[in-house]
């Protein structure tokens, strides 16, 4: 379930930790009052995990990585497609006056883009994160409507939690493998 290279594990913790804090933040747009402490704790834990991952990435910077010239190019293409799809969908939703659904669209795009990322860097755990985020995005609207909650809270909290779990798994794996 872990990546071959410690540096890639640690860098995944940085990226997932950073974006987990962003999703916990997005969920704070208008959550139920009782969620606020959980969301704040998630944001703080995510940032601390990203920092720990950053320190491990720095420590193992000269170790091996899955990224070579071809992998880097393919990764850049995947990320460019992700950003393009996220931007286009967001603009279309805004034009249609459905800005409330942008968070779900972004989560869906993030989840789907993680499948090729997992394959590119050879890190199977990212497939699990991809599947869970994709599912969270697909069920967010019906759950939000049924419970009369904001969509951003319903998609942001689980997406943040999934990314945080991936970041914690990655930073712990990097620390154990790299020691």
Notes on the protein architecture:
Keywords: Membrane, Transmembrane, Transmembrane helix. The chain crosses the membrane at residues 6-26, 38-61, 73-95, 102-119, 125-144, 151-176. This protein has 179 residues and is mostly helical. It has one domain (6-178). The protein contains six helices and no strands. The protein is globular. The model has no long low-confidence stretch (mean pLDDT 97).
Strand content: under 5%
Rg over C-alpha atoms, rounded to the nearest angstrom: 17 Å
In total, the number of domains comes to: 1
Low-confidence stretches: none
Spell out the helices and strands N to C: HHHHHH
Shape, principal axes of CA atoms: globular
Give the termini distance in whole angstroms: 18 Å
Structure annotation, total helices: 6
Number of DSSP strand runs: 0
Helical residues, percent: over 70%
Average pLDDT taken over every residue: 97
Describe the oligomeric state of these chains in a short phrase.
single chain
How would you classify the helix and strand content by structural class? mainly alpha
Largest sheet: none
